[in-house]
Amino acid sequence: MAKPIMARATAVWLVDNTTLTFKQVADFCGFHELEVQGIADGDVAAGVKGFDPIANNQLTAEEIQKGEADPLHKLKLKVYAAAAGEEKRRGPRYTPLSKRQDRPASILWLVKFHPELTDGQVSKLVGTTKPTIQAIRERTHWNIANIQPIDPVALGLCKQSELDLAVQKAAAKRAKEGDVMSDDERRKLVSTEQSLGMEAEPRIPTAIEGLETFSLSGDPREDDEADEKEENLPDADAFFNLPESGTDDEQP
To answer: What is the pLDDT of residues 206-233, one digit of tens each?
Structure first.
């Protein structure tokens, strides 16, 4: 329930200037009934000047009269027509000054790892403008050479649940349009909860990437040469076939 501004001072004014019950004042100002009773007894909010809710357009005199006539009536805060929809203000979210320098890195991360996200979705996630996103997509940003992609969740620019929701919406939109996604793109569209529950896939260390077909057996041509050498070697028994006695050493 919406509370009036300067709720304690408003409660002081209502206790001093109306015959509303403590419960009615407590419900309207967001206090406990005993706290309002303490205000009436002078034990709470001593020295606080009352704040007129009628003069400040928080209550109408007719609403107070209804409450005085019916103790069960709950006071309703006056609604401003000009403030309607103020909480649902559109546009990029506010980013603190200390984190604005991190936005290009987060935009590059989203563009690189989630290209299915639209510029509007990226803008809402990290609080930036579409020209900046377009410049990073086309790599025409003035500092593109020094920008490294960093997860916006790690930078504190958005929540993981917000990123997951945006990715799921992008997946549903692409599926509705009939676009065929590759396996890598499908893996990117998996939510955090689902990805954490998956079994880890075996990966080849980067140090030996490209050596998947490497074999310790060596070059097969070397094996063939070794076989030929073995065939050309004389038989070991030939060294022990001595000539028969009396053939070469006979005396005339």
So the answer is: 555 555 555 555 555 555 565 555 556 5
| Separation CA 149–CA 201 (nearest Å) | 24
Contact present, 137 and 144 (Cβ < 8 Å): no
Which sign, positive or negative, has the C-alpha torsion 121, 127, 133, 139? negative
Q: Which amino acid is at 79?
A: V
**Residue 18 three-state SS:** coil
Among residues 162, 185, 184, which one has the least CA distance to residue 175?
185
Alpha-carbon separation of residue 10 from 24, 48, 181, 199, 233 (angstroms): 13, 10, 59, 59, 111
Q: Which of 94, 109, 200, 101 is nearest to 153 (CA)?
A: 109
Residue 242 has pLDDT above 80, yes or no: no
Cα gap 132→117, rounded to integer Å: 15
Question: 199 or 38: which carries more pLDDT confidence?
Answer: 38
Report helix, strand or coil for 55: coil
The mean-pLDDT minimum among 126-135, 160-169, 184-193 falls in 184-193
Residues 171 and 161: their CA atoms lie apart, in Å, by 15
Please spell the DSSP secondary structure of 191-249, one letter per residue. -HHHHHHSPPPP---GGGTT-TT--TT--HHHHHHHHHHHHHSPPGGGGG-PPPTTTSS
**Residues in Cβ contact with 189 at an 8 Å cutoff, skipping those fewer than 6 apart:** 116, 167, 168, 170, 171, 181
∠ CA 218-223-224, nearest 5°, is 140
